[in-house]
Amino acid sequence: MSVVGAGSAAAPRRGSRLAREAALHGDLVVGNFTDSRRNASLRALSMLEWALDRCPLAPFIMKVEDHVFVNVPNVLRFVEHHKYEVRTAWGSLAREAGGEYLRGDAYILTADLAGALLRRVWREAYSPHEARFVWRLLAGAAAAAAHEPGLAAPPPAPARALAVPRVPFKGALALWEQLYH
Length: 181
Hints:
By secondary structure, this protein is α/β, with parallel strands linked by helices. It has helices at residues 12-25, 40-54, 72-81, 113-120, 130-140, 169-180, and strands at residues 4-8, 28-34, 60-64, 69-70, 88-91, 93-96, 99-102, 106-110, 144-147, 163-164. It has a 4-stranded mixed sheet with strand order 3-8-5-9, covered by helices on one side. Strands 1-2 form a two-stranded parallel ribbon. Strands 4-10 form a two-stranded antiparallel ribbon.
């Protein structure tokens, strides 16, 4: 299943395109906020809430930004390999002066974390920096966080990656054809 999450569009033209997409495919989750980089944490929380409500039996949740190419066969192998894991998040771990955090381009969570993270929201100071905010939620929920090279930035060779950031929309099809044809 593929679902696109977004806040409300600030531009009316973009909003009408999103409305047409939602009506045609039913694949949009629209939060009650303006979609912007400052609201990335709200977008992540909307994703968790939607997954908890609409996909209660899904074993994993994968968050991916719109500029990221997802290598679906590798992701499927990854989740099959980790199917018995619980309370775990995988992604590209980064370290800065403010500490360690999970990069926001792409990460995978065991679905049992959705409720635990949402319950933690009210105990943490909100941050518009999604990666750091989600990291604090994970720490507060006593979740394990693991660095996954296939989600690293920069990624390994696309053939070994789970997700490749900064792939332009038109480049995604070319990359898929390069890998699988």
